[in-house]
Design brief:
This protein is mainly alpha-helical. The chain contains 2 helices and no strands. The protein has one domain. The longest helix is centred in the middle third of the chain and has 69 residues. The radius of gyration is 34 Å and the shape is elongated.
Length: 90
């Protein structure tokens, strides 16, 4: 058996948990629960800021699309006008 296999077998060997395991786990959960709220608040703040930025970007994009549409309409009208002039000459 290799050292790796021996180490793996040792790591996976069944052991009885310590008697105070429940108390230790519950104490750690209580500490983490208290320290979790600042993290939750930070995530909520970042999410709200991201949503606000997304809405602003959407408004800017819609304005750009509308402006482009208008400019393309003007260009199309000009092309149509020039086409009519050429057809009239021929």
């Amino acid at each position: 058996m290799t050292d790796f296999e021996s180490g793996l077998r040792e790591a996976l060997r069944r052991r009885e948990p310590p008697r105070d395991l429940t108390n230790a786990v519950m104490a750690r959960v209580a500490v983490r629960r208290r320290s979790l709220w600042p993290a939750v608040a930070a995530v909520a703040l970042v999410t709200a800021a991201g949503v606000g930025e997304g809405l602003r970007a959407k408004r800017e994009l819609m304005f750009a699309v509308e402006l482009t549409s208008r400019k393309l309409g003007v260009a199309q009208a000009k092309v149509m006008e020039l086409s009519q002039r050429r057809i009239g000459r021929d």
